[in-house]
Design a protein that fits this description.
The chain is 3% helix and 56% strand. The protein is mainly β and 133 residues long. A hairpin with a 5-residue loop joins strand 3 and strand 4 (64-70).
């Protein structure tokens, strides 16, 4: 099977990574801040444009919130074949442990539209974290 005939899900890979941000967190207010980095790699033979995002944020306390919007981090990246796009963003959840997942919408230069799943990743504050008041 050549690269062009592979399904879109095999041509684009998404690698998320999250870190706890204690300086923007406050236990008393139920704010646990996380930064995350997403690497999007295009293994296909044509360029793609990331058009939109859909996130599900599990706050770890029974609350799920969905976020939808154009592009990512105020950008609509065009990713050439063999290239990658990396961006950083953040989320605040209401408990010390939660997770995020979702999907991105893409359009290839050929006009093909498709969605790629964002793998679920954990948002976990260290057990030793406590706000300094």
């Amino acid at each position: 099977m050549n690269i062009a005939s592979r399904p879109a899900s095999k041509r684009i890979t998404i690698r998320p990574r999250a870190v706890f941000v204690p300086e923007h967190s406050d236990i008393a207010l139920g704010h646990y801040a996380f930064g995350y980095e997403i690497v999007i790699e295009n293994h296909g033979d044509e360029a793609v444009t990331l058009t939109d995002r859909h996130w599900v944020i599990d706050h770890g306390n029974g609350c799920l919130k969905e976020v939808r919007g154009e592009g990512v981090a105020d950008q609509i990246p065009h990713i050439p074949p063999g290239d990658r796009f990396t961006y950083r963003s953040g989320a605040v959840i209401e408990s010390p442990a939660g997770r995020m997942w979702g999907d991105y919408g893409f359009v290839a230069d050929s006009g093909e539209t498709f969605r790629i799943k964002i793998p679920s990743f954990d948002l976990v504050a260290p057990a030793s974290f406590r706000s300094i008041q």
